[in-house]
Amino acid sequence: MARKVTTGARIGWTIAAWVVALLIFFPILYALITSFKTEQEAIAGFSLIPSGTFENYITVEEQRDYFTPFMNSVILSVGSTILALIVALPAAWAMAFAPTKRTKDILMWMLSTKMMPSVAVLLPIFIIFRNLGLLDTRIGLTVMLMLINLPIVVWMLYTYFREIPGEILEAARMDGAGIWQEIVYVLAPMGVPGIASTLLLNVILAWNEAFWTIQLTTTNAAPLTAFIASFSSPQGLFWAKLSAASTMAIAPILILGWFSQKQLVRGLTFGAVK
Amino acid sequence: MGSITLKNVSKTFGEAKVIPSIDLEINNGEFVVFVGPSGCGKSTLLRLIAGLEDVSGGHIMIDGKDVTDAAPAERGLAMVFQSYALYPHMSVRKNIAFPLKMAKMDQAQIDKKVGDAARILNLTDYLERRPGQLSGGQRQRVAIGRAIVREPSAFLFDEPLSNLDAALRGTMRLEISDLHHQLKTTMIYVTHDQIEAMTMADKIVVLNRGNIEQVGSPLELYKTPRNLFVAGFIGSPKMNFLEGEYAKSKGAKTAGVRPEHIGLSKDSGLWSGTVTVAEHLGADTFLHLDVDGIGPITARAGGEFGASYGDKVFLTPDDSKLHRFDDKGLAIKA
């Protein structure tokens, strides 16, 4: 029997959910509000009502070039995602459909690299990048972002592929499907939702990655994360402009996330709730 | 046509020898059931015949042609899996049509064959549904439909009914038997359920630890089991095995008495025992007894035989139906 929910409880829970959601969303909202304030208003103290100036956006756009870091963010996140997929697909495939007794260990080992503080390997990576001439290059950073997100991509794809029962593939084989027909007619349609949500999540992770993108770039390959960071520099802090820059940096990914939220939620809870 | 011959077929997984060496002849049109306890290698054997696993040694011939190295699809067999293995993203129609599409058959012919299969299996009203919208029994029928349309030389069933509830299992058992009579195609059916084996098979292959213990018709296995394993596996409830004085007096190491071959009386008999559990099934009553000087015995009584826990009952085994086994566990021929 379903549990009874009284109207009062439902209203209570709805309010609670909104409060929690707003609390989580508040920093972003406040940055958005602040971006429409003047610098004086911004440092004057807490206020939710801006004067509604667009001045910050205009200044940010005039002072700094927004387009280059934006394009860098797009290239880095999409590029590293495609690269990660190329590497992770066969890996996850092999681990899901032809596991050995070491498969679990390899997966754990891969995931364990995510538990390591990035700063611990900053120096060796920096030196490698310098010696290979990869500092401040899109290529170098694309590879770097691919590498740091690879464990998650492999792990997610592996989880999806594990959900595809082996017997279905065998049935296709019995039905006369060759390896390509098996992929086109059976595996791809069944695997696409998983691959798509992995792709989306990886784009978001790569877009938001701030440690390596700031450490390994200066101007040429600097994405939006470095663009934001550059506002908290020499001339002192300009809260309103920083907020405008932040808003401009997160807007694309926020919009992408909004339109793909159904896919993302489905992807992230795949296997957990059947 | 659908005769299948296995010659010295063996299979090893790493160190483990799952199937040491098997020879088997399956005739065209036969309904053969592989039966045995879990892990006896029956599913592996089926998968070797299907081509889903490679043999480690030996040869598999279908209609006289060596298919040992042929891909699954080239063997002309169709398989029905335990999990049904339907394509969840395709409608019932597309599921059934899939093997025909793979065979590049033209659309008009595909439509006709799918329609025919759906009619045979009562699926006509469900053709546009997805597998997820069907009941277990309907899914099973779709899986069978997908197998039928290929007109294979033999059907392979891998425990197809084990996911269904008891009532549905009974119905599907009859449907599959009926299908066999209609199609007259060779069927190989794997199960651990000896009732399925007894009721459906023309020929039962009893497997144990990768070896064939005995091959024969259901009644042959029931009446003349070759060894202790077959005697204990075929028949429900299990045969009683008695050792000691009684067996010795019959010239055997072990004497086997089926529960249905023991006469019961409340007044007199060869042995006396006390009821420990009485299972009343309506038509039958299974009594589990502790028999003086013998030990635990299961006996079948008529449904009207009133006995309950603690009652004293007399038993007399039917000597003419006694099974005798030597110290190697092999049946002693009369």
Task: Give a short overview.
The complex is a heterodimer of chains A (274) and B (334). Chain A has 274 residues and is an all-alpha fold. In chain A, 73% of the residues lie in helices and 0% in strands.
Which descriptors apply to this entry?
A: 274 residues, mainly alpha, B: 334 residues, alpha+beta, five-stranded antiparallel beta sheet, 18 strands, 32% strand, globular
CATH architecture of the largest domain in chain A: Orthogonal Bundle
Percent range for β-strand residues of chain A: under 5%
What's the level 1 CATH class of the largest domain in chain A?
A: Mainly Alpha
End-to-end Cα distance of chain A: 20 Å
CATH topological fold name of the largest domain in chain A: MetI-like fold
Largest sheet of chain A: none
Oligomer: heterodimer
CATH topology of the largest domain in chain B: Rossmann fold
Low-confidence stretches of chain B: none
In what range is the share of β-strand residues of chain B? 25-35%
What is the radius of gyration of chain A computed over CA atoms, rounded to a whole number of angstroms?
A: 23 Å
Helix % of chain B is: 25-40%
Report the order of strands and helices of chain A: HHHHHHHHHHHHH
Number of helices of chain B: 9
Report the count of strand segments of chain B: 18
The chain-level mean pLDDT of chain A equals 85
Low-pLDDT runs of 5+ residues of chain A are: none
- Average residue-wise pLDDT of chain B: 92
**Number of separate domains of chain B:** 2
Structure, explained:
The complex is a heterodimer of chains A (274) and B (334). Chain A has 274 residues and is mainly α. Chain A has two domains: 52 residues, no CATH class; 165 residues, MetI-like fold. In chain A, 73% of the residues lie in helices and 0% in strands. In chain A, helix 4 crosses helix 9. The longest helix of chain A has 31 residues. Chain A is globular. The mean pLDDT of chain A is 85. The radius of gyration of chain B is 23 Å and the shape is globular. Chain B has two domains: 226 residues, 3-Layer(aba) Sandwich (Rossmann fold); 89 residues, Nucleic acid-binding proteins (OB fold (Dihydrolipoamide Acetyltransferase, E2P), Beta Barrel). In chain B, helix 2 crosses helix 3 and helix 2 packs parallel to helix 4. In chain B, a hairpin with a 2-residue loop joins strand 1 and strand 2. Chain B has 334 residues and is of the alpha+beta class. Chain B is built from nine helices and 18 strands. Classes of the chains: A mainly alpha (274), B alpha+beta (334). Chains A and B meet through helix 8 and helix 9 of A and strand 6 and helix 2 of B.
